[in-house]
Design a protein that fits this description.
Distance between the termini: 35 Å
Protein name: Short chain dehydrogenase family protein
Largest sheet: 7 strands, parallel
Number of helices: 7
Family: Belongs to the short-chain dehydrogenases/reductases (SDR) family.
InterPro entries: NAD(P)-bd_dom_sf, Sc_DH/Rdtase_CS, SDR_fam
Structural class: alpha/beta
Radius of gyration: 17 Å
Mean pLDDT: 91
Low-confidence stretches: none
GO molecular function, one term: oxidoreductase activity, acting on the CH-OH group of donors, NAD or NADP as acceptor
Order of helices and strands: EHEHEHEHEHEHHE
Helix content: 40-55%
Shape: globular
Keywords: Oxidoreductase
Length: about 250
Amino acid sequence: MNDIQNKVVVITGASSGIGKETATLLAAKGAKLVLAARRTSALAALAALTAQYDTEVIYQQTDVTQLADMQALIELTIAKFGRIDVLFNNAGLMPVSMLRDGKVDEWEAMIDINIKGALYGIKYALPLMEQQKSGHIITTDSVAGHFTGEGLSVYSATKYAMRAVMEGLRVEEVGMGIKSTLISPGHAQTELASRISDPQLRAAVLKSETETGLTATDVANAVMNAIDTPDNVGINEVILRSIDQRDY
């Protein structure tokens, strides 16, 4: 079974980590890709990397917090491929901090990217999927959307919020041929921890990711498995952790 070949897949946050690995795996399976991120040079490098596969890959600089950027991304997809089969809302931010430190700018950045960015993608992709009577929206969440801990309060809040959004999407689109999937990894080796401004929290998270974290490819494979299913099967949520992870 290969329900991936020739599917048109839009990936936000595609320049590194889970997005980059997912793009690489999907290209190898023959998916047609539209890659989006803020770092154009990284997107160009990824497109060059995937050129070895017998498929089509395009990219566009995109800030998911900007409605106009998300609209332009979806319009580019339709102009090039005539349809959109999968939207992978993968862009995310994780500058965790203690509430007592009151890092409002970091809180707002997480809310804008983790929640609004995904919602903006849904806003522009979903009506087209309804017209097609088919489509699949996938969002990268986290086990922090199921449990919270020290320093995780606001980050967890954004991930709990996306659980609500994606379950609402599933319920609203019953009978429309549209799938919704939430991918919730535990510790994972991505660039997210490097942006934590608190040095102690940054060191602790990096240590956890290094010692007990999943690789980005592990998570990308979960995304692949969710896409590679028959039309009548929806994998609504995947929680995955390294077998060596103890906490939450």
